[in-house]
Amino acid sequence: MKIEYPPGATPLEPEDLLELIPTIATHAQLNEFEAQNILEAEQWARGNSRLAGELFSVSGLLQLHRRMFGSTWGWAGRYRTRDTNIGIDFRQIPQKLPALCGDAHYWVTNQTSPWPEIAVRLHHRLVQIHPFVNGNGRHARLVADLLLEFNGRSRLTWGGRSLVEKSERRTEYIDTLQEADSGRIQRLLQFAESE
Asked: How many structural domains does the chain have?
């Protein structure tokens, strides 16, 4: 199967592709299969009161990723074990992810910012860490949306279009993430709330 990666995507290595669970021949079929897997995970997550209490835990984040991609990839819900074009050194993930969970708990408990900003900061830090082989952006967006929903708020719109395939909106999304890497989160927040 030939995969065409949009800008900012993490390319899969041959050993990653060996853990593809279903028999899929094209990239379009892979995208469709993953989208169905993610939709099922969203439905599960929304009805899961236990996850609402564990969203800021490593086990909750790993479980959500496993639910999102577990029918597609054998490595779903496991930390990546190599460096990629995006993210921190893979050896730092076991320290940085729990630290983010603690920070997010503090942000929510102390209402350090408006809800959308807390969600976007959580999303950005998750993407920066990049704990998984793939699916990090989709996972981080769902985590941010669940944070808002679990607290009676509306989901973010994330530019109003799919960010999986190559598009101007995806390019804008990647640009705003990179700007947020230098501490300027405002454009990412505006993007997350745009249609």
From this structure: 1
